[in-house]
Amino acid sequence: MSVEIRVPQLPESVADATLVAWRKQPGQSVTREENLADLETDKVVLEVPSPMSGVLLEIRVAAGTSVKSGEVLAVVGEGTGAGAAAGAGAGATNGAARASAPVLSAPAASAASSSAAPVAATVAPKLGPAAQRVAEELGLSGTTIAAAAKGGRASKADLVAAGAKPGQAAVTGAPAAAAPSAPLTAKPSATPGARTEKRVPMTRLRQRIAERLVQAQATQALLTTFNEVDLGHINELRARYKDKFEKQHGVKLGFMAFFVKAAIEGLKRYPVINASVVGTEIVYHQYFDIGVAVSTERGLMVPVLRDADALDFAAIERGIGQYAQRAREGSIALEDLTGGTFSITNGGVFGSLLSTPIVNAPQSAILGMHKTQLRPMVVDGAVVARAMMYLALSYDHRIIDGREAVQFLVTVKDCLEDPGRILLGV
Predict the structure, then answer these.
(1) Considering all CA atoms of the chain, what is the largest pairwise distance in Å, rounded to the nearest integer?
(2) Which of 68, 195, 344, 361 has its CA 20 to 30 A from that of 249?
């Protein structure tokens, strides 16, 4: 019996997807629910699981091809696969020869040492699409991947760190061959003075990001207002309670929860900042779904904290941490990225001192955080060093007046400089 593997039903807002890579090749064994291929949409990476255990018989769509919902990708049948070696030999079938997934078990004994005791297989942890690609590119063995795993799962960062270690084993787990001696005179890799170029196609996500940014600039009257905030009291609060907070809640007390809480207080006072334009109407959202920008290798993603006003500090920090990890591993769900009434982005983690963030349409405003820096400030008539951060609010001037934007930013500043306001709602 054979079963056709089809493109899963794509979300209504997604017309097609790109088949990024095959994780199995014809002739290789597959297990039920094992990921066979990665599909990239303009928002997330989707996995294509096998509906049964057996053998991948045929690949009908090559990597790099655009596909639509229901399109046949491959055929899986009953039987036992010929293993990784046979699968790699058959990998060129139908032009879909992309590097197969790394062998995550110890190599079988060679014919010359067939009498030796068998080598125990290494159970590899689950890898997301992004981590799987890193494992392929670095040629990591199953043993190395298992050693890099934390909590039963290896992230992309874990694999990059493991691959950077000297003497890394090859993909099959065999000892790395000694490097040949370098020639006495090395030839330059390119002619001196040569001007080279490299063309790389934009990913679906990058194309979507570009489209949305241009759309926001073209359809909204964007303006940015600035202020600065003294984070000294928040630093003191975090230093006093961070250990107890982490021990009790299992998550670190960061800055973002304070900013989310302060932004919500501002949104409650100035509801138009939390509104959207639909045609000729202004839609005032009576809920607070806060998007928090996360930078990944594939591009910027903005997962959404639903009903953030009902979350405490621990829930906010935990939610942001989980979203960030899943976004960077490529396992975040489409519904995690949709919606949102207001966004926060933190360029300070990369050293940005000041910027003008672009609104994440159809939202009407976005708060930009920046680098915290000690600067001389006048406090009670004396010049002292204070931990200062510039804040930026970009907003759609079609519905938000400068007065409301400035007052919102002042509210955020007041809440951050005196965190007790967040608790008391004053």
Answers:
(1) 85
(2) 344
Spatial CB neighbours of 372, under 8 Å, sequence gap ≥ 6: 231, 348, 387, 388, 389
Kindly report the length of the chain: 426
Is the pTM here over 0.85, yes or no? no
Which amino acid, one-letter code, is at 265? E
Output the average pLDDT for the chain.
80
Q: How far is the CA of 368 from the CAs of 70, 262, 318, in angstroms?
A: 41, 13, 21
Task: Answer yes or no: is pLDDT of 43 > 50.
Answer: yes
Burial class (CB in 10 A: 0-12, 13-18, 19+), 122: middle
Q: 328: burial class by Cβ within 10 Å (0-12, 13-18, 19+)? A: buried
Q: At what angle do helices 313-329 and 129-138 cross, to 10 degrees?
A: 50
Neighbours of 143 (CB within 10 A): 16
Cα dihedral across residues 95, 55, 173, 163: positive or negative: positive
Count CB atoms within 10 A of the CB of residue 111. Answer: 6
Written as six digits, the tokens of 116 are 């030796």
Whether the CB-CB separation of 242 and 255 falls below 8 Å is answered with no
Please give the C-alpha separations between residue 247 and each of 152, 236, 251, 252, 315, in angstroms, as whole numbers.
Answer: 22, 18, 8, 9, 14
Q: Is 83 left (phi over 0), alpha (psi -120 to 50) or beta?
A: left
How far is residue 356's CA from residue 358's CA, in Å, rounded to a whole number?
7
pLDDT band of residue 142 (cuts 50, 70, 90) is low
Catalytically annotated residues: 397, 401
Segment 315-373, tens digit of pLDDT: 999 999 999 888 888 788 878 888 899 999 999 999 999 999 999 989 999 999 999 99
Q: Residue 341 carries which DSSP code?
A: S
Spell out the domains of the chain, with CATH numbers in brackets: 1-99 (2.40.50.100), 102-107+121-175 (no CATH), 208-424 (3.30.559.10)
The rounded distance, in Å, linking the Cα atoms of 287 and 222 is 23
Residue 247 host element (H or E) = helix 232-249
Picking from 2, 7, 96, the residue whose alpha carbon sits closest to that of residue 49 is 7
Which two structure tokens, joined as six digits, stand for 258? 């304070």
Q: Please answer whether residues 300 and 294 qualify as being in contact, where contact means their C-beta atoms are separated by less than 8 angstroms.
A: yes
The conformation of residue 78, written as its DSSP 8-state character, comes to S
Contact 304, 336 (CB under 8 A): yes
